[in-house]
Amino acid sequence: MSLSLDKNIVLEEINRASSIDDIEKIRIQYLGKKGLISIEMKSLSSLSIEEKKIKGQELNIFKSLFEKELQNKKSDLENKALNEKLEKEKIDISLPPRNFNTGKIHPISQTIYKVIEIFGSMGFSVKNGPDIESDFNNFTALNIPEHHPAREMQDTFYIDDKVLRTHTSPVQVRTMLNSEPPIRIIVPGRTYRSDYDATHTPMFHQVEGLLIDESSNMAHLKGCLIDFLKEFFEIKNLKYRFRPSYFPFTEPSAEMDIAFTKKDNVIKIGEGDQWLEILGCGMVNPKVLQNCNIDTIKYQGFAFGMGIERLSMLKYGITDLRTFFESDFRWLNHYGFNPLDFTSSTGI
Description:
The structure is a single chain. By secondary structure, the chain is an alpha+beta fold. It has helices at 7-16, 20-31, 36-42, 49-89, 107-121, 135-138, 169-178, 218-233, 286-291, 308-316, 329-335; strands at residues 125-126, 132-134, 158-159, 162-164, 183-192, 203-213, 240-247, 250-263, 266-269, 274-284, 300-307. The chain folds into two domains: 3-89; 107-341, Bira Bifunctional Protein, Domain 2 (BirA Bifunctional Protein, domain 2). The longest helix is centred in the first third of the chain and has 41 residues, at 49-89. The protein is elongated and about 120 Å long. The relative contact order is 0.11.
C-alpha cells in the first residue's frame, strides 16, 4: 500500500476541510475515476491471486471508510452553514411592533358600506340571498315573460334548471314570500350576465331597494332617491331628472339621470347640460305583488336598482370597469381606502 493512501493522512485531510468544495476535491482525489484508489485497483492485475485478494480487501475497506467520513464531514458543514444562515435571519421579537396597516378597502366594498349607511339612516334594512337562483325567483315572479330577451343563453348563465341571478331582485321575491308588509329593504350583492368590455363584466354588483306599505307613491320614491344621491355624491345642488321607462316588474317605471360635464376626459357630475343614467326605478307592478301573495288592494310600494361599479366609477374617477377585478395592488393602493378612516352607523 502506498503512503498516499495512509488512512490517518486521508482522515486528517477530511477533518481539515472547511467547505463543501474542499470535500469534493478530496473525494475526486481519492475516489474519482482517476483517483488514487482507482489507480490502485487497476494495479491489482499485476499481482498474484493471494496478493490481489489481500490488497483488494484493504482497498475496499479504505474506500468504505473514506466515503463514510466524507459524507459525515459534508453533513456537518451543511448543518453549520444552515445554522449560520438561521442565526442571521432570526427575528428579534423584542423589537417594537411594525406598522402592518398596509391593506386597503376596495372601492366596491367602500361604496357598498356607504350605500348601506345612507339607506340605513332612512330605515332600510339589509337582506341577502344565494347567487344561484330558481327561474321563478329570477324571472317569473318578477313578471318577466318566457319570450323576454333576458332569458336567452347569451345573457344569462344557466346551471341545469337554475340560473346565476341576473339581478338581486330574487331576494326581494324571497322577502315578500316570507314576510308580511310593511317591508323596507335594500339588497346589495353580486349579479351575473354574459358580457365583457370596458363598461361591462360577467360578474358585477348591484344594490336594489324595495318598499311595500299601504300608502307609498312615486313622490316618496323620487324623494328617497334624490336624497340618497345628494348624500352619496356629497353634492347639495345635484342636477337630476326622471324619464319614463319600462321594466316588467314596475309600473309606472322611470330612469333617473344626473347632469355632468366632461373636460380633458374627466367627468364632473352634478351640473352641466349632458345627462348620465344612474338608476332605474318605479312602482312595484301589481302582478309581482300577486305572484308573491301580497294583497294588491291593501298594499303598494316602489323599487329601485343601481350598479355599484357605476356609482364607484363616478364618485372616485375610475374609467375602466375591468380594473375593479384585475387584482393589481398598485391600483388598489391608489384607489383603496384606509380601513381605519371609515366609520359606519350600520356597524359594518
